[in-house]
Amino acid sequence: MNIGFEAKRFFTNYTGLGNYCRFVIDSLSRYQPQHKYFLYTPRESDHAEVVPIVHRENVEVIHPHGFYSKPILSALWRSWRMTGHKTIQSLSVFHGLSQELPIGLPDHVKKVVTVHDLIFLRYPRFYNAIDVRIYTSKVVRACEQADRIIAISEQTAEDIKNFLHVDASKIRVVYQGCHPVFKKRASPEESRSIRHKYGLPDRYILNVGTIEERKNLIVLIRAMAAMPEQARIPVVVVGRRTAYFKLIAEEIKKYKLAPWIIFLHKVSFADLPAIYQGAAVFVYPSFFEGFGIPLIEAIESGVPVITSKGSCFSEAAGPAAVYIDPNDAPELAAHLARILSDPSVSKAMVEQSREFIRKFEPDVIAEELKQVYQSLYKVPSTSL
């Protein structure tokens, strides 16, 4: 098969959607090497994250020339003009990796789109109204165009059915995995260097994610306030601040917790695995996510996980994680105290969770994606 991808974020985004794009294309080109992969992008990059992938023999990068190579017009090429490129006619499948598909794909090309989440429809108050309209328009159009929709979790699949009224027969759930950097253990020297660089204590509770209302950092702050001081260890928060940070700062001041809370902003992605690995426990009390990749990152790093009940969290973290009511600070405080005081509890959680996340390995995901593509042709898998 020849498989095409809209690959702008593959080259330009080094978090969230960009990581997903690279994970998919890397996994497929590595573990399904018999197929050819075409990456359509307005511009390229020589970033270390992409170079090993694009240099593979089964990967080809397509970008605009002449008139449409100008930055102001590249968006037009990406959303419309790319479908006129000669290689498009050779494709078996075109896969939109970020909730959209270009206009004008030929009828014979099977169309697949990945939908990550519909949080902007479930919780529109967290978004600008114009953004909600734009995101909604794109995902509705893509789901109408698509022959198959990939949801990254059962939760997202349910939301696609309920909010977009898409027939369940059109949807397949294919999970995503975390970046391979989290599989590598930091050496003792590297760990000491990272602790020194960021001023980290020897033991700490970790929270990773944008500091915004939906991520619900406030319940962790209140849980710290509910713990006896002798039972506390510092909390390290890694994430970009938003206006919600003002409320967090007020809570910290209210409970006199400043000595216990460390905020890290603009942490190098390369440093993040060592920061995870140094944590005693990872707390992710978000109200809602499309999947929750930080949960897998934490488990891969050998850290026990506490997260929220509901949403997709049990799909990502599995049965060995601890699940709390995201509004119940005393419950969170009790679980923190138990895990921090009993190493055997922590060890058992980590061992069982690592077994669970094997389903997110890249070879497994590549095989599942291949099966989705092949299902569109309704032929035995050995024929494609």
Word description of this protein:
This protein is of the alpha/beta class and 384 residues long. It folds into two domains: 2-177 and 361-383, Rossmann fold (3-Layer(aba) Sandwich); 180-359, Rossmann fold (3-Layer(aba) Sandwich), CATH 3.40.50. It is 41% helix and 14% strand. The protein is built from 16 helices and 13 strands. It has helices at residues 8-12, 16-31, 51-54, 71-79, 119-122, 129-145, 154-164, 188-198, 217-226, 245-254, 272-277, 293-300, 313-317, 329-341, 343-356, 362-375, and strands spanning 2-6, 36-40, 59-62, 93-96, 110-115, 148-151, 171-173, 205-208, 235-238, 261-264, 281-284, 305-308, 322-324. Strands 3-2-1-4-5-6-7 form a seven-stranded parallel sheet. Helix 9 links the parallel strand 8 (205-208) and strand 9. Helix 2 (16-31) packs across helix 16. The termini are close together. Mean pLDDT is 93; it is low at 380-384. Residues 199-355 form the Glycosyl transferase family domain. One of its GO terms (molecular function) is glycosyltransferase activity. One of its GO terms (biological process) is lipopolysaccharide biosynthetic process. InterPro entries: Glyco_trans_1 (IPR001296), Glyco_trans_4-like_N (IPR028098). It comes from Chryseosolibacter histidini.
